[in-house]
Protein backbone atom coordinates (compact mmCIF):
# COMPACT_ATOMS: atom_id res chain seq x y z
CA UNK A 1 0.00 0.00 0.00
CA UNK A 2 1.30 3.45 -0.91
CA UNK A 3 1.63 5.98 1.91
CA UNK A 4 -1.09 8.61 1.87
CA UNK A 5 -0.24 12.29 1.71
CA UNK A 6 -1.55 14.72 4.31
CA UNK A 7 -4.81 16.32 3.27
CA UNK A 8 -6.92 19.22 4.61
CA UNK A 9 -9.85 16.84 4.79
CA UNK A 10 -11.47 14.70 2.11
CA UNK A 11 -15.02 13.39 2.12
CA UNK A 12 -15.61 9.98 3.69
CA UNK A 13 -17.17 8.96 0.39
CA UNK A 14 -13.75 9.11 -1.28
CA UNK A 15 -12.10 6.75 1.21
CA UNK A 16 -10.01 3.78 0.18
CA UNK A 17 -7.81 1.71 2.51
CA UNK A 18 -4.63 3.57 3.49
CA UNK A 19 -2.00 2.78 6.13
CA UNK A 20 -3.07 5.69 8.34
CA UNK A 21 -6.43 7.48 8.35
CA UNK A 22 -7.63 10.17 10.77
CA UNK A 23 -11.32 11.05 10.98
CA UNK A 24 -11.73 14.53 12.45
CA UNK A 25 -15.01 15.99 13.67
CA UNK A 26 -17.82 15.32 16.10
CA UNK A 27 -20.42 14.04 13.61
CA UNK A 28 -20.64 10.43 14.73
CA UNK A 29 -22.84 9.44 11.81
CA UNK A 30 -20.23 10.47 9.23
CA UNK A 31 -17.52 8.69 11.22
CA UNK A 32 -19.63 5.54 11.38
CA UNK A 33 -20.16 5.66 7.60
CA UNK A 34 -16.39 6.00 7.11
CA UNK A 35 -15.67 3.01 9.34
CA UNK A 36 -18.40 1.02 7.59
CA UNK A 37 -17.03 1.83 4.14
CA UNK A 38 -13.51 0.74 5.05
CA UNK A 39 -14.81 -2.44 6.65
CA UNK A 40 -16.71 -3.35 3.50
CA UNK A 41 -13.69 -2.64 1.32
CA UNK A 42 -11.40 -4.67 3.57
CA UNK A 43 -13.87 -7.56 3.63
CA UNK A 44 -12.97 -8.35 0.01
CA UNK A 45 -9.57 -9.54 1.26
CA UNK A 46 -9.36 -12.91 2.95
CA UNK A 47 -5.99 -12.21 4.59
CA UNK A 48 -7.00 -9.18 6.66
CA UNK A 49 -7.91 -9.22 10.35
CA UNK A 50 -10.35 -6.67 11.82
CA UNK A 51 -9.94 -5.26 15.36
CA UNK A 52 -11.79 -2.50 17.19
CA UNK A 53 -10.10 -0.57 20.03
CA UNK A 54 -11.32 2.12 22.41
CA UNK A 55 -8.65 4.69 23.27
CA UNK A 56 -10.35 5.61 26.55
CA UNK A 57 -10.33 2.08 27.99
CA UNK A 58 -7.17 0.92 26.22
CA UNK A 59 -4.86 -1.63 27.85
CA UNK A 60 -1.07 -1.61 27.23
CA UNK A 61 0.01 -3.67 24.23
CA UNK A 62 -3.40 -3.93 22.54
CA UNK A 63 -2.33 -1.85 19.53
CA UNK A 64 0.84 -3.88 19.03
CA UNK A 65 -1.17 -7.09 19.12
CA UNK A 66 -3.82 -5.73 16.75
CA UNK A 67 -1.28 -4.53 14.18
CA UNK A 68 0.94 -7.64 14.19
CA UNK A 69 0.73 -10.34 11.53
CA UNK A 70 -0.46 -13.81 12.49
CA UNK A 71 -0.89 -17.28 11.08
CA UNK A 72 -4.33 -16.29 9.82
CA UNK A 73 -3.69 -12.82 8.42
CA UNK A 74 -0.93 -10.82 6.77
CA UNK A 75 -2.64 -7.44 7.25
CA UNK A 76 -4.89 -5.77 9.79
CA UNK A 77 -7.73 -3.26 9.78
CA UNK A 78 -7.69 -1.55 13.17
CA UNK A 79 -10.37 0.89 14.26
CA UNK A 80 -9.63 3.25 17.14
CA UNK A 81 -12.62 5.02 18.67
CA UNK A 82 -12.88 7.76 21.31
CA UNK A 83 -9.48 9.25 20.56
CA UNK A 84 -10.48 12.49 22.29
CA UNK A 85 -10.60 10.60 25.61
CA UNK A 86 -7.46 8.51 25.12
CA UNK A 87 -5.54 7.32 28.16
CA UNK A 88 -1.78 7.51 28.61
CA UNK A 89 -1.32 3.84 27.65
CA UNK A 90 -2.79 4.42 24.22
CA UNK A 91 -0.83 7.64 23.70
CA UNK A 92 2.46 5.88 24.40
CA UNK A 93 1.73 2.84 22.21
CA UNK A 94 0.35 4.95 19.34
CA UNK A 95 3.41 7.19 19.27
CA UNK A 96 5.63 4.12 19.15
CA UNK A 97 3.60 2.59 16.32
CA UNK A 98 3.84 5.78 14.24
CA UNK A 99 7.63 5.55 14.37
CA UNK A 100 7.52 2.13 12.71
CA UNK A 101 4.26 1.67 10.81
CA UNK A 102 3.39 -1.53 9.01
CA UNK A 103 2.43 -0.37 5.49
CA UNK A 104 0.20 -3.40 4.88
CA UNK A 105 -2.10 -2.38 7.76
CA UNK A 106 -5.03 0.04 7.79
CA UNK A 107 -5.18 2.07 11.01
CA UNK A 108 -8.20 4.36 11.20
CA UNK A 109 -8.67 6.69 14.17
CA UNK A 110 -11.58 8.97 15.06
CA UNK A 111 -10.91 12.25 16.88
CA UNK A 112 -14.15 14.08 17.72
CA UNK A 113 -12.46 17.23 19.05
CA UNK A 114 -11.25 18.85 22.24
CA UNK A 115 -7.85 19.68 23.66
CA UNK A 116 -6.63 16.24 24.73
CA UNK A 117 -4.18 14.37 22.52
CA UNK A 118 -2.73 17.29 20.54
CA UNK A 119 0.71 15.68 20.62
CA UNK A 120 -0.62 12.50 19.06
CA UNK A 121 -2.67 14.40 16.47
CA UNK A 122 0.41 16.29 15.33
CA UNK A 123 2.34 13.03 15.11
CA UNK A 124 -0.43 11.37 13.10
CA UNK A 125 -0.54 14.24 10.62
CA UNK A 126 3.25 14.36 10.38
CA UNK A 127 3.24 10.64 9.61
CA UNK A 128 1.26 11.33 6.42
CA UNK A 129 -2.24 10.42 7.58
CA UNK A 130 -5.18 10.80 5.25
CA UNK A 131 -7.43 13.37 6.95
CA UNK A 132 -11.17 12.80 6.58
CA UNK A 133 -13.74 15.50 7.32
CA UNK A 134 -16.41 14.39 9.82
CA UNK A 135 -17.48 17.84 10.95
CA UNK A 136 -21.21 18.35 11.69
CA UNK A 137 -23.40 19.32 8.75
CA UNK A 138 -25.54 22.25 9.85
CA UNK A 139 -26.40 24.36 6.82
CA UNK A 140 -29.36 23.32 4.69
CA UNK A 141 -27.22 23.63 1.56
CA UNK A 142 -24.83 21.01 2.97
CA UNK A 143 -27.73 18.72 3.88
CA UNK A 144 -29.06 19.04 0.33
CA UNK A 145 -25.63 18.08 -1.03
CA UNK A 146 -25.60 15.10 1.34
CA UNK A 147 -29.00 13.86 0.14
CA UNK A 148 -28.11 14.32 -3.51
CA UNK A 149 -24.87 12.39 -2.98
CA UNK A 150 -26.75 9.53 -1.28
CA UNK A 151 -29.05 9.11 -4.27
CA UNK A 152 -26.25 9.59 -6.78
CA UNK A 153 -24.25 6.83 -5.08
CA UNK A 154 -27.31 4.56 -5.32
CA UNK A 155 -27.81 5.54 -8.99
CA UNK A 156 -31.32 6.79 -8.23
CA UNK A 157 -32.92 10.04 -9.39
CA UNK A 158 -34.60 12.45 -6.99
CA UNK A 159 -36.09 15.80 -7.97
CA UNK A 160 -34.88 19.05 -6.42
CA UNK A 161 -38.25 19.67 -4.76
CA UNK A 162 -38.17 16.19 -3.24
CA UNK A 163 -34.68 16.81 -1.84
CA UNK A 164 -35.80 20.05 -0.20
CA UNK A 165 -38.91 18.41 1.23
CA UNK A 166 -36.88 15.56 2.68
CA UNK A 167 -34.41 17.97 4.32
CA UNK A 168 -37.32 19.99 5.73
CA UNK A 169 -38.97 16.86 7.10
CA UNK A 170 -36.04 15.02 8.70
CA UNK A 171 -33.04 17.33 8.41
CA UNK A 172 -32.53 17.99 12.12
CA UNK A 173 -30.59 14.74 12.52
CA UNK A 174 -28.04 13.69 9.90
CA UNK A 175 -28.37 10.06 10.96
CA UNK A 176 -32.14 10.21 10.48
CA UNK A 177 -31.68 11.98 7.16
CA UNK A 178 -29.34 9.25 5.95
CA UNK A 179 -31.70 6.52 7.14
CA UNK A 180 -34.60 8.22 5.35
CA UNK A 181 -32.60 8.33 2.12
CA UNK A 182 -31.90 4.62 2.36
CA UNK A 183 -35.54 3.84 3.09
CA UNK A 184 -36.70 5.73 0.01
CA UNK A 185 -34.03 4.04 -2.12
CA UNK A 186 -35.01 0.56 -0.92
CA UNK A 187 -38.79 0.97 -0.78
CA UNK A 188 -39.44 2.83 -4.04
CA UNK A 189 -38.72 2.52 -7.74
CA UNK A 190 -38.20 5.09 -10.45
CA UNK A 191 -37.77 8.81 -9.88
CA UNK A 192 -38.47 10.04 -6.36
CA UNK A 193 -40.51 13.24 -6.45
CA UNK A 194 -42.10 15.45 -3.83
CA UNK A 195 -45.29 13.37 -3.79
CA UNK A 196 -43.30 10.29 -2.79
CA UNK A 197 -41.47 12.17 -0.03
CA UNK A 198 -44.75 13.62 1.26
CA UNK A 199 -46.28 10.15 1.32
CA UNK A 200 -43.47 8.85 3.53
CA UNK A 201 -42.62 11.91 5.62
CA UNK A 202 -45.33 14.51 5.04
CA UNK A 203 -46.72 13.97 8.52
CA UNK A 204 -43.50 14.96 10.22
CA UNK A 205 -43.59 18.08 12.40
CA UNK A 206 -40.96 19.90 10.36
CA UNK A 207 -42.65 19.18 7.04
CA UNK A 208 -46.08 20.18 8.37
CA UNK A 209 -44.71 23.42 9.83
CA UNK A 210 -43.24 24.46 6.50
CA UNK A 211 -46.52 23.76 4.71
CA UNK A 212 -48.44 25.86 7.23
CA UNK A 213 -45.95 28.73 6.98
CA UNK A 214 -45.78 28.70 3.19
CA UNK A 215 -49.58 28.70 2.87
CA UNK A 216 -49.95 31.58 5.35
CA UNK A 217 -47.29 33.70 3.62
CA UNK A 218 -48.99 33.03 0.29
CA UNK A 219 -52.28 34.35 1.70
CA UNK A 220 -53.96 30.93 1.58
CA UNK A 221 -55.53 31.00 5.04
CA UNK A 222 -57.82 28.03 4.35
CA UNK A 223 -54.99 25.67 3.41
CA UNK A 224 -52.84 26.89 6.30
CA UNK A 225 -55.63 26.38 8.86
CA UNK A 226 -56.65 22.98 7.47
CA UNK A 227 -53.05 21.75 7.63
CA UNK A 228 -52.58 23.23 11.09
CA UNK A 229 -55.77 21.74 12.56
CA UNK A 230 -55.00 18.29 11.20
CA UNK A 231 -51.51 18.54 12.66
CA UNK A 232 -52.75 19.67 16.09
CA UNK A 233 -55.47 17.00 16.11
CA UNK A 234 -52.84 14.31 15.63
CA UNK A 235 -50.79 15.54 18.59
CA UNK A 236 -48.28 17.93 17.06
CA UNK A 237 -46.82 20.50 19.45
CA UNK A 238 -47.56 24.08 18.26
CA UNK A 239 -44.15 25.42 19.38
CA UNK A 240 -42.11 24.15 16.37
CA UNK A 241 -44.81 25.46 14.03
CA UNK A 242 -44.50 28.93 15.56
CA UNK A 243 -40.71 28.67 15.29
CA UNK A 244 -40.97 27.81 11.59
CA UNK A 245 -43.35 30.69 10.97
CA UNK A 246 -40.93 33.05 12.69
CA UNK A 247 -37.99 31.73 10.66
CA UNK A 248 -39.84 32.06 7.35
CA UNK A 249 -40.94 35.63 8.12
CA UNK A 250 -37.39 36.58 9.15
CA UNK A 251 -36.08 35.17 5.89
CA UNK A 252 -38.70 37.14 3.99
CA UNK A 253 -37.66 40.31 5.82
CA UNK A 254 -34.00 39.73 4.96
CA UNK A 255 -34.58 39.59 1.20
CA UNK A 256 -37.39 42.18 0.94
CA UNK A 257 -36.37 44.89 -1.50
CA UNK A 258 -32.98 43.27 -2.21
CA UNK A 259 -32.47 42.51 -5.91
CA UNK A 260 -29.13 40.74 -5.76
CA UNK A 261 -28.83 37.18 -7.13
CA UNK A 262 -29.59 34.40 -4.65
CA UNK A 263 -26.12 32.89 -4.99
CA UNK A 264 -24.40 36.10 -3.87
CA UNK A 265 -26.87 36.72 -1.03
CA UNK A 266 -26.80 33.19 0.40
CA UNK A 267 -23.46 33.45 2.20
CA UNK A 268 -24.13 36.97 3.43
CA UNK A 269 -27.52 36.04 4.90
CA UNK A 270 -26.50 32.62 6.23
CA UNK A 271 -29.06 30.87 4.02
CA UNK A 272 -28.92 28.28 1.25
CA UNK A 273 -29.36 29.62 -2.29
CA UNK A 274 -32.69 27.81 -2.68
CA UNK A 275 -33.90 29.35 0.58
CA UNK A 276 -33.03 32.83 -0.71
CA UNK A 277 -34.84 32.11 -3.99
CA UNK A 278 -37.93 30.85 -2.16
CA UNK A 279 -37.93 33.85 0.18
CA UNK A 280 -37.52 36.25 -2.75
CA UNK A 281 -40.53 34.69 -4.47
CA UNK A 282 -42.61 34.92 -1.30
CA UNK A 283 -41.51 38.52 -0.71
CA UNK A 284 -42.99 39.81 -3.97
CA UNK A 285 -45.73 42.28 -3.19
CA UNK A 286 -45.13 42.34 0.55
CA UNK A 287 -44.86 45.72 2.28
CA UNK A 288 -42.13 46.24 4.82
CA UNK A 289 -44.59 47.64 7.36
CA UNK A 290 -46.76 44.51 7.07
CA UNK A 291 -43.74 42.26 7.53
CA UNK A 292 -42.85 44.17 10.69
CA UNK A 293 -46.40 43.69 12.00
CA UNK A 294 -46.18 39.95 11.30
CA UNK A 295 -42.88 39.69 13.16
CA UNK A 296 -44.45 41.45 16.15
CA UNK A 297 -47.51 39.20 15.96
CA UNK A 298 -45.39 36.03 15.88
CA UNK A 299 -43.39 37.21 18.89
CA UNK A 300 -46.66 37.61 20.81
CA UNK A 301 -47.88 34.22 19.59
CA UNK A 302 -44.63 32.60 20.70
CA UNK A 303 -45.25 33.85 24.24
CA UNK A 304 -48.86 32.61 24.10
CA UNK A 305 -47.97 29.05 23.08
CA UNK A 306 -45.22 28.84 25.72
CA UNK A 307 -47.55 29.38 28.63
CA UNK A 308 -48.77 32.94 28.20
CA UNK A 309 -52.22 31.95 26.97
CA UNK A 310 -54.92 29.41 27.71
CA UNK A 311 -55.18 27.98 24.20
CA UNK A 312 -51.93 27.66 22.18
CA UNK A 313 -53.82 26.26 19.20
CA UNK A 314 -56.23 29.21 19.12
CA UNK A 315 -53.33 31.68 19.38
CA UNK A 316 -51.60 29.98 16.47
CA UNK A 317 -54.76 30.04 14.36
CA UNK A 318 -55.13 33.78 14.97
CA UNK A 319 -51.51 34.34 13.97
CA UNK A 320 -51.99 32.43 10.72
CA UNK A 321 -55.10 34.43 9.88
CA UNK A 322 -53.26 37.66 10.63
CA UNK A 323 -50.27 36.74 8.43
CA UNK A 324 -52.53 35.56 5.60
CA UNK A 325 -54.50 38.83 5.77
CA UNK A 326 -51.29 40.83 5.30
CA UNK A 327 -50.06 38.74 2.37
CA UNK A 328 -50.35 40.42 -1.05
CA UNK A 329 -53.21 39.27 -3.23
CA UNK A 330 -51.93 37.37 -6.24
What does the model show?
The chain is of the alpha/beta class. The chain has three domains: 12-133, Rossmann fold, CATH 3.40.50.300; 140-201, Helicase, Ruva Protein, domain 3 (Orthogonal Bundle); 205-326, Zinc Finger, Delta Prime, domain 3 (Up-down Bundle), CATH 1.20.272. The chain is 57% helix and 9% strand. The protein contains 15 helices and five strands. A five-stranded parallel beta sheet has the order 2-3-4-1-5. Helix 10 (221-233) runs antiparallel to helix 15. The radius of gyration is 25 Å and the shape is elongated. The model is unreliable at 1-7 (pLDDT under 50).
Topology:
Elements: E1 20-24, H1 28-42, E2 48-54, H2 62-66, E3 75-81, H3 88-99, E4 106-111, H4 118-126, E5 130-133, H5 140-153, H6 160-170, H7 174-187, H8 194-201, H9 205-217, H10 221-233, H11 238-255, H12 262-269, H13 273-283, H14 288-308, H15 312-326
Parallel strand pairs: 1-4, 1-5, 2-3, 3-4
Helix pairs in contact: 5-6, 5-7, 6-8, 6-9, 9-10, 9-11, 9-15, 10-15, 11-13, 11-14, 12-13, 14-15
Biggest sheet: strands, sense, closure? 5 strands, parallel
Number of strands: 5
- Can you give the mean pLDDT? 88
What portion of the residues fall into strands of 2 or more residues? 5-15%
Amino acid sequence: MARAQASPGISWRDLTPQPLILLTGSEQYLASRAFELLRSQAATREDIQHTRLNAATYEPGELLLATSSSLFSSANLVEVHDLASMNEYFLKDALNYLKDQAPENVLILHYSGGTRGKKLLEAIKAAGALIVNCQPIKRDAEKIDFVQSEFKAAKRRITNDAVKSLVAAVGNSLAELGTSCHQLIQDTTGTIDQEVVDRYYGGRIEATAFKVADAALAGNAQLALTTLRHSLDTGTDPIPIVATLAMKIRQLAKVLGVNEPAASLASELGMASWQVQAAQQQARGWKRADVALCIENIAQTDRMVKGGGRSPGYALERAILFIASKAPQR
